[in-house]
Amino acid sequence: MCERDLRWVHSARNHDTIRAASGSDKRISFRDHRIWFDCSDFVDKLVFTEDEKAKGVILYDRRSNYWGFYLRPSVNPHAGLGRVMLSLTLLWLKREGVKVIKAEVKRENYGSRGLHESLGFKLAGATELAIEYEKEIKDGNA
User: Fold this and answer.
1) C-alpha 53 chain-centroid distance
2) Residue-wise pLDDT tens digits, 38-48
3) How do residues 76-111 score in pLDDT, each as one tens digit?
4) Which among 87, 101, 1, 95 is positioned nearest to 41, based on CA atoms?
5) CA distance 128 to 33
6) What is the domain class of 3-136 according to CATH?
7) How far apart are CA 106 and CA 126, in angstroms?
8) CA gap 90, 50 in Å, rounded
9) CA of 49: how far to CAs of 75, 81, 100, 125, in Å?
10) What are the extents of the domains in the chain?
């Protein structure tokens, strides 16, 4: 992710559907968004484009091995782009030597839960609000 992506990612992070999926009702100020962008050097921010238009972003925290993702609100969530983004990111993480990837998904986010499960993520725990998933990344298993 680079400087030119800041505005659309900020807008996406504040979109009602993305805030609902992330479990936050709080709007993010551009100032706080900027601080997040500048200070999270341990988080890889991968922007996926199609026809030179940003369609989605994946955030991967190298300290905790957690990832999160969202599609631009104008993208059809049933078009398969989420699966493509996550599958390509798994291949990249494998090449980077990552052995385990984790995700925390809000309980009501059935689309993301189903996507993670279809990609081989296993239940690793649960809280009242979220399901914890984990996937081992090994040869032939990205």
Assistant:
1) 18
2) 776 667 888 88
3) 777 888 889 899 999 999 999 999 999 999 888 888
4) 1
5) 28
6) alpha beta
7) 10
8) 19
9) 11, 10, 26, 33
10) 3-136
